[in-house]
From TrEMBL:
It comes from Bacteroides graminisolvens DSM 19988 = JCM 15093. This is DUF3109 family protein. It comes from the Bacteria. InterPro entries: Rv0495c. Belongs to the Rv0495c family. The lineage of its organism: Bacteria, Pseudomonadati, Bacteroidota, Bacteroidia, Bacteroidales.
Length: 193
């Protein structure tokens, strides 16, 4: 692990390769798992703000869940997460004509209808950020549904931190990311990655 400011970063973030391959996985990360996507407290207001814009794109089941419990809940670990349908699907998941999952919030953002991209935990995936007292921990999360992304990342030789440059800057800032690139260069020179 390396430390950049108050953030401890797993070497896997530098070593492992990754490029999302939606053609292969069909967006399974939005519809698999045992809880919703982790949220930061300030993101709840953002989700509620975009809700009227995306409401008609959501499934009837998702709208029912949101009407009943809201856009989020506290999971069994005490974490704030997006509400889910069928015990696993994010309520903001929609499908295109090919059966591929997409995020209704991200689509509205890309269409210029909202100014919130999507929860930062979704944007950062396969990185998960943990809070440990005064430190944050940045870890690479391995999941079977992302095998195609690992294969594509290896083929194109793109490390996780480079694939996730934009969300890492969104979360930690550009100066922090520039330091991360400097650390990566030093790790390469010393044959640690």
């Amino acid at each position: 692990m390396v430390q950049i400011d108050d953030v401890v970063v797993s070497l896997d973030v530098f070593r492992e390769k990754f490029i999302c391959n939606l053609d292969a996985c069909k967006g399974q990360c939005c519809i698999e798992g045992d809880a919703g996507a982790p949220l930061e407290e300030e993101e709840v207001a953002e989700l509620e703000k975009v809700l009227p814009v995306i409401w008609d794109q959501l499934s009837p089941q998702a709208r029912e869940i949101i009407d009943r419990q809201g856009v989020c809940y506290t999971d069994q670990d005490g974490d704030l997460v997006t509400s889910i349908v069928n015990g696993k699907d994010c309520v903001f998941t929609c499908y295109d004509e090919k059966g591929c999952c997409y995020c209704a919030i991200e689509k509205a953002y890309r269409d210029g209808k909202v100014d919130f991209y999507k929860p930062v935990s979704c944007h950062l995936y396969p990185i998960r950020v943990g809070n440990y007292g005064p430190y944050k921990a940045v870890n690479y999360h391995r999941w079977d549904v992302c095998k195609a992304a690992v294969i594509l990342g290896q083929k194109e030789n793109v490390p996780v931190y480079k694939f996730l440059k934009e969300p890492l800057i969104r979360k930690f800032g550009e100066a922090w990311y520039n330091e991360m690139e400097s650390v990566a260069e030093e790790l390469r020179k010393s044959n640690h990655i």
